[in-house]
Amino acid sequence: MARPEAVANEQREFDRNSSAARRVPVVRNRLQLRAMRPILGILGFLILGYALVELLWTTFLEGGAPLITRICQGLAKVFLSIHHRRRGRRTVIAAMGLFAVISTVLVWTMLIWVAWTLIYCAGERALISTETREPANAVARAYFAGYTIFTLGLGDYRPEGGFWQIVTSIAAGSGFLLFGLTIAYTVSVVSAATQKRQLALCIWSLGRSPDDIILRAWNGMDTTALGPHLVSLTAMLALLGESHLTYPVLHYFHSTKRSSSVAARVAALDEALTVLECGLQKGCSLDLPSLGAARESITEFLQTLKPALIAPAAEVPPSPSLQALRESGVPVVEDELFEAAVAALAGRRKLLLALVLNEGWTWDEVWPVKLLGLTPFRPNPAPDQSAPSGETNT
User: Fold this and answer.
1) Lowest CB count within 10 Å: 108, 149, 215, 345, which one?
2) Cα separation of 307 and 250, whole Å?
3) pTM for the complete prediction?
4) Element containing residue 200 per DSSP (H, E)
5) What angle (nearest 5°) sits at the alpha carbon of residue 19, between those of residues 17 and 24?
6) C-beta atoms surrounding 93 within 10 Å
């Protein structure tokens, strides 16, 4: 009888030791989790602060916030790669702006959501179930943070204590701030994108290429007819530059048509200004104030490329040709003098090429006459002032 009793005692001792051994890791894990909770709370507040910086920077300040800018630039590379593989079909690249805005809003939302989830993990009984009064697990804390930010107010869990009730009120306020600024940001970006296409169409109406712009304005003696158009375009270009500086995401709104592509049209206008300034003989171009104001507005716009992480092109685009103007009777300078003047603008023209490439176009879209077989507009010859009334030189 003694032997079975001894065996039973040994078994009970073994069970007690096994149970204690199993409890040791559980207790250790609980202690580790309790020690980590303050760290999770600090990390949550840091992420929340960074999320608010990204949100306010993107919506109110000049230049793009660091994280959003890099994400949009990465998306742009992916879309451009797909665009080139699809051999220039612009249906994909035209959707880049939409995806850039969606990605921006998702980044803001996820940062704030993760931040509040970590903050609620900082207290063991920060959240409890309304039914069982048991502390919420990690998934339930993320769920509560989500529906608080999205202002659903379901009530499955509730904050325990006055401190966490105040924290929940702040979380709800951050959700209102998030969605209010998201709506304001989206409306502003869509409006600026519309103005961007409007500017491109206005430049397109002046001519389909730089030399076409000049030929349409040529009246047989000078190009002063272009002056009033440049005055109106200068204000639009200034607004374009400020819009891109405030909302760099506009650099990723692209058009499917050449006529409404602001990159190709602004490059064409700047090339036309280069020809007017450096290629026409004295007295045939516009006055310097008109040229300078338009040129400076384009310069301000080109300066918005750097905050959007768009680097100058590696190569300088081909020099413009004066042949079409010369054949149309427009007095132009010698090619050597013109090419020397254009060479001094190499840095500027690299930026123009980068702008064009960023929208998935090539430099052929800026000078399309030979590529597309277009016939530039040529005005009728000016009347010979020395000829009798009603007769013209032929």
Assistant:
1) 345
2) 12
3) 0.79
4) helix 162-206
5) 95
6) 23
